[in-house]
Amino acid sequence: MPRASLAQKKDFVTKAFCPRILALASAGVQDACTVNGFDSFADLLSPFGQDVLTQITIQDGQGAPYFLDKINVRFTTDFVTEKSPTHSSSDVDSLVKTCAAACIEPANPSFIGSDGVILDAAIADDISTWAPWYTLFRQQWVGDMQPSEHETFMLPVACLLVASGSEADPIGALRTLQASAAVQRVLSCSDGGTKTLFYYMLLHDGRDTAALQTIDLQFDQVRKTFGQNSALLKINTNTDLLGAADASERVKISSIWSSDIAATRPLVAHADTSYGEMLTMRDVAALRDAVKLMLVRSVVPHMQYVIRVLSDQTASERRGITGRLFSAGRRYLNTTSKAENTYVGTDGEMYYRHRSPEAMLRRLADCSFMLKDYRFAQSVYQIARRDFQSEKAWMCYAGVQEMIGVCKLLWEVQTTKAEFDSIFEDAMLTYTHKTRAPRRHFLAVRCTVVYYELLKHHRFYAFAPGALLRGPAFSPSLTALLNEQAAYSYLKAGSRPNVRKFAFYAMLASQSYQKAHMGDLASRCLRMVRVSLKSRSQEQARADIDGEKHHGKSTAEVRSPTMASMDEKAVAPNMAASDEANADKASVTAKTKWGAIDSYINHELGRQSMAAHNFDEAFQYFMALMGDEKTPPKLQSKYLQELLQLFLESNDQSTAGGGGAIKQTGAIELSIPSIDPQLARIIMSPELEGEDAMLEWRLDGSSPSKPSGGGSGLQLPRFCSVGEVVAVLLVVTNPLVIGVTLNNLTLECAFEATGDSVATDTLVDSALDISTVPTVILEGEQTTMVTVQITPRRAGSVSILGAKYLLCDILPTFKSLVLPGRRMNDTKEQRMSVVHTPDTTLGFRVSSDLPRLEITVDDLPDTLMSGSMHRACLRVANSGELPCHSVTMWVSHPSFVGVRPPRLCSDEDKAGDDTGMYVSLPDVTKHERIQVPNVLRDYSTFVLVGKQTDALGSSAHCVEPLGSLGPGEAFTVPIWIRGDRVGAHTLSLCIGASSAATVVPKDLAAMRSRRFEVDLLVTPSLRVNAFVRPSARNPRERLLGVEVENMQTELSVQLVQTTFTSGFYELEPVSNSLGSEPHKALVGPRQSISMVYRVRPHDMTQSGKLLRSNSPEMFAVRALRQFIYSSEKPASAPEPIDLIYSNSVFAGKGIDCKHRSLQSYIMRAQAHRRRNALRSGYPLIPDNYHSAMFPLFESFSIDFVLFWSQVGGPGRAGHHSISGIDLGVPHDYLVEGLSPPTEGAARTWLSDTMHDREALIHSIASRSEAALRSERPLDVMIRVDTAQKSGSLYVADVAISVFNHSWRYGYQFTLDLLSPHELGQFLAEGAKMDCSGSRAAWSWLGETSYSSSVEPHGLAVLHARLSCYAPGMIDVAMWRLQASASLEPSGAAVSTVFSSRNLDCALYPTQPHFVHVGAI
Prior knowledge:
The chain has 1416 residues and is of the alpha+beta class. Helices cover 34% and strands 25% of the residues. Strands 10, 14, 16, 18, 20, 21 and 22 form a 7-stranded mixed beta sheet that branches. Strands 13, 24, 26, 31, 33 and 34 form a 6-stranded mixed beta sheet that branches.
């Protein structure tokens, strides 16, 4: 906030007691002021009432002429007669705090140096600059004056009535203003015999161009109506706000009012307000001239007229001894005069009525004072003082006594200096002790401030401390403010500054500021006291000691009694501590004597500094306390708590933006705990957990982890490579008898890059990664070891400077670990002084052995729709000096990420390959067989640079890597992120790199790595469900239904294509209506669509060959048996599988599912889901065995992919997939792997391993039982030929087909055909069966029981006959099938303990089978 700038202290007094003019404006004038940012017309005129150059000669009250060079006036908008504000203690505290907050100066004043008081600056500097908040306070305090019965400064000397020419009746508006309540209040307070001056002004608003022609005529009418006290004012001529004035003129015009507000109302917020938007410099000149013309032509002459009238009316009162006798006779002989002229106010004080001679005397003196006739005003004040004193009107008496002193200091300075001091003292004591009015404190403070400002004007600083200390002490903030000014006055009084008294009163001010809860100012005073006491040099101290010895007296004995008593009063608040603290200090003093006294002093000084928010000094004292090991445990705990509390308060103060907070350039050095640098040790390549860029990459898909380092064999002391972890062991000792806690312990290091001549501390953050120890708990006098890790990122030299930690998780502390090196004794200078070589004990060098890559990932999404694809870009640039021969990327969610091949690019080309994931084809083959690898590899790792290994997959389905990445080269990799699963996910991408030219041993499988994480929220788009039904047409077929529901509420989805993949089945839609009519494949918001597909074997003639020893299922069986009984992995991988792709395109072009990028992504997603299924289905099989034991695809599994595109919106595209659709046929083949091998001997296991294998066998066997309960290995279908008439019966031939769904086992079965009349044997006793309707009388003819066998995936056809009484629909689903599994081709029964009990089954019809029997 801008500060008030008053060049001279005398001007402050004259402007405080200047004439007031009541300015009232009509609505039109108020509108003209509002557009310029003013609340009233008085605010518009306010700057032009300051220092108005009148340059006229007027007459005083006695008729003598004198020259009036300038005058100040203030414009008000109302005149209230209420009492002045009471200004309670809280109000004063709030005002002082507001002033301090507006211009707080945390630093010491200019006369305070680092070594003491700068005497020359104390003498030469302006005292007002030392405490700018006092300047604001005095301006605001005096500016808050309100009308009072005992003085007339606030009574307006004139009424300014302003109307606008744009109004319909300006004269009527002026008459309305003249009859307003504010004017009536002014008239009621006017003195007898004088008239109130009315000054009429007609305002022309430049915005009203129509009124410009009639404004002169209107002004003539105003002047004829109201006389010569009229004026015409034209403003707002800046009608073009943008072009009429440049920016500098706008700022200049606005600054006129901003400066005035800063001087008159310093606490009003106006920094962001622009004033005078419609004004020009010509308008400003017109306003200044209008105010000057009003003062010179009307206001000043009217005030002279008032002075002459009042002078004539009070002539008898001022006529020497005759007047005094007349006045005494009137008071004592006329009993009615006192009652008529005086009254008792509501505050209990006696005042004089406005028409009384005493009131007219005061009015006469005030008018003369406002016209700067101080001599005549003083004489009138003195006459009125006698009357007020005799009538015991103490409020009126104190007021005139104050003005007498002001008049003496304004013109009668060379008289006796003690005279005006006694006058002000009398006024102050009268205000404080003899009056009872609530506003007495306000007037007393005003009297003190005015007197102090006049003393500063005349440089009478010797009287200033006494004047300030006499001020009222009803508020601690006010007392502090006055004591602070008294302290500054001692630096100005006399030929040399009195530093000791300055320090004393500054300490008093700090205590008062503490009571007022103003810690910033209290801390500032304490800092001044501390520095000022340093100005007493050692020579002066020795002189004082010598003087004491010479006179045999102590310093306290030679001091004056007054000073001694004042010192005692000042020290008393400091000694008023709590009873508990005093008891502790007394016990310490009795036990440890001088050491305890030193601790007591440090503690007291620390508490005082802490209370004053002087945290820097407080820390010095408390740190000295913590260094004393002899302190009892109770006090150690107390001092430690206060030290921590001090830091918390300091931290809160610093966060709040206040002053006096601790300046923390790094951390604070404390004596606790003790860390001996000679015991510190450095260990290279430690086996420690923690953040490290050197990660070990494995080919099993696991997340890159820190290398073990145990087999590295690296034994190079004092040397490490970039990215290698270095451990620093510290021996930490707690010297206290109480326990402490160290939190976030780390190291501070210096780093010097290779080739640099000096250490560059700015490179430490980028060159070193230093770990942090979360917590170290130290009991009393305990010693422990702490390990801190350092990971260098650049080549160069590292030096350990010290340890940093938080003491008790609060106080940041630094402990230096720098040791002096060898003592140098080579030269004479070195032998004469103590010089050490640089110490290298705690330091090591870093070699550049790994490439330095700049890795960025752009455009990672945070929200995706399920199934949709989003393109991101990975950019890797080699910014080091070594070529990079291997760059590998690992992703945590392979089913979410699709990667395109990397491509070299320049710095300008960062786009990479823009080809999308979905490649359109005009013609898509409905059914095609494609051979793909069937190895369950980990697809979470991608080789971007280097040689592709077999363990990471075949080249047909992996990213084609680059050969190498040279220095300065870069490449980009398009990354496609797909919302695979709904929900919140955290995706991790880790990129590792290594170089052939490295000092790291080859057997250390580690790469320099960088990890990225993104929080991804996947929202639902489509819900896809699949269901399977048996086919009534063919037992080999199934019906697969797909239901698609659009979960979105606004956008539609166009289905593009469905693709089914299987090693055995092919699928085709039952109805091709969606393909022939594309609009039917459009799924609207919150709508669903269903599709039905027929599932049948692709080629039954080849099924027998596919289902033998080379099938994926048999590979898994052999691998499981080998794992259970020998714990070995298969030597070979599964053979490739021929997948049948069944495509169905709905509209337009289809999607090329054989495209390398899409196919590799689908295989990665399939592998990820396959691994998850194996983990949940077989938890007892380790993850690292899954890829060796299980294939990626099964022969009879069906995978489904639905491609879609969004209609409208951003036009997203994506796909949904379902893996491993269950057709309800028995495929649980792993149970066969539970039997021991027929060749070779099983390995003998230990007891623990045997228990694990038994648990695995039991889990797989139990899973097989559950699967068989819900699956039907055999299906029965009945087909009836045309019936022939045979007598009275209709006879038809029946073909019964029994189909075996099992891929491995054949079945021996017995089929019993049941007639309706035979069903009773299966019913409960007493139950009856309804054989009407479809179960009308019919029966089987001939043989009804058949025994046969069926091969795996084979078909057995049986022939039978049936007869019925009449043609029609009958239900022939009446049979019973009992089957037993057998091994093919031998036909031997399955006899393992794990499968024999599960492969015998009895099947019955699950639903009716209606056939039509008709005659030929």
